[in-house]
Amino acid sequence: MINSPPNCADINEPGLLHLDLAKQAIQDAMPVLQESQQIPIEQAKGRCLATSIISPVQVPGHTNSAVDGYALHGSDLPTENTTTSLTIQATVLAGEFYTETCQSGHCIRIMTGAAIPADLDTVIMQEHCEVTRNVISIDARHKKGQNVRQAGEDIHLDAIVLQVGKLLCPADIGLLASLGITEIKVKRKLRIAIASTGNEIYSIASAIPEGGLYDSNRYCLQAALDRPDIEIINLGIIQDNESELLKRFNEAADYADIIISTGGVSVGEADFTKQVLQTSGDINFWKVAMKPGRPIAFGKIKHSIFFGLPGNPVAVLVTLYQLVLPALEKMLGITDKPIAPLIKARSLEAMRKKPGRTEIQRGIVSQTETGELQVKTTGKQGSGILSSISMANAFIILTHDRDRIEKGDWVDVQLFSGLF
Ligand code: AMP
Ligand code: MG
User: Fold this and answer.
1) For the chain, which residues make up each domain, given as ranges?
2) Can you give the pTM of this predicted structure?
């Protein structure tokens, strides 16, 4: 049973639920996916690591030279104000392994990355040596042990190199390859069914009659959820028809971890989704104190988590990013991903705002010559106007208690890069 969180009464409209409480209630109710799968590292970018990676080797694998130069015995280094000459005994290139001993008074010509012979401990950069035929001359500025990368200094044997829950990035894939790991265990993909509801909604493949409109929500959702860790099941458009909605959602619940539908959760006369879900699922209907995106349904149909998002396209994207994506990440087991921080920018315009709800406007953030961030809205902010997001590069988050914003006030912004 998913319990409704306590309602946060509002002076203007009792029963409105603070966005933070809605977020928390959703987070608390999300299960964490347990199943994992073994995949080659070439396919692992953007997947969530299911078990921590323990290094099977040490990196670097052998003590090697950090520069092109000459490897020698530290005990042969000259004392202050003197110089020393050493005879070049051999040359060792990267990839070669030199096993003969090097007597005192001798040195080895060595290249970057080449293994340093076991009896030597110091490398002098070639730029710091004077070379005459097979003899080098060095002065006293050098230190024993310099320019040597010790075996295991980056990663020692059995070290934890990547923690369970990490959302894998290109550097992680490189790291795995550097350890010779070919396959890893990641969380299996999350199966998400998406549907649009409404008698007025038509697929882009069909002609629309008077009073109809194209389904933009499903395409938008599909694009927003197009990630390596998600598998989309497209349920198409479902009519505002009780038995049809019941049948399709129940079928989807048999194989989807999550069902996301849009439309049909407000108080309109034809809002069947609400009636259907109230009778067949364990669903709460929330009036979240946010604009856009007030009516939201959240709960369970059989073992599937159900999100009923508003019908208006802007509200769909805003609620997806604010409420649904953090929940998906919890279910996927992601505990470590790059942060998309809230940052402050100066508003270039006054904005009307009612206290008692979080308003999420769409904005364009830019930087002044002195490096300060500033933001302006993308103009009309109606919840059906998708171009207000299309033109934006950030959400402007006007927090719950704020009143009118004056030109020059600081506001919170959330940049799309890192989010989208
Ligand atoms: P509803 O919540 O079902 O009353 O829908 C609210 C508004 O969003 C209405 O104007 C709908 O026509 C519109 N809408 C609903 N679903 C979609 C969709 N899939 N694509 C575009 N607009 C939609
Ligand atoms: Mg509708």
Assistant:
1) 17-35+189-331, 36-59+154-187, 64-149, 343-418
2) 0.89
